[in-house]
Amino acid sequence: MKLFRMAAVLALVAGPAFAQDSPHINLMADGPSKTEDEKAADAAREKAYKDTLKKIPDAKASNDPWGGMRADPPKQPAPKAAAATSAPKRTKAGTAAN
User: Any idea what the Cα angle at residue 8 is, between residues 4 and 9, rounded to 5°?
Assistant: First the structure.
């Protein structure tokens, strides 16, 4: 029984290694090559496809249905003009609890 288990383990380990080393056989037969008419038809079809792709217009506007719902970016505050008055600034004196 022990010998049978060892043979089974050896077969499981050696099987994939043997499959990698086996000769490569192509089981699918090569299909017949295309005739000149078929090649010309394929070329015409490819040309028509490329011409159709050139006719597609470029997207100009974003297709964003929620675009109008977003807030505008924050605006920069206008620079403060220098005070042209000659009056000195008043400061609060003392601490007042409100």
Answer: 120
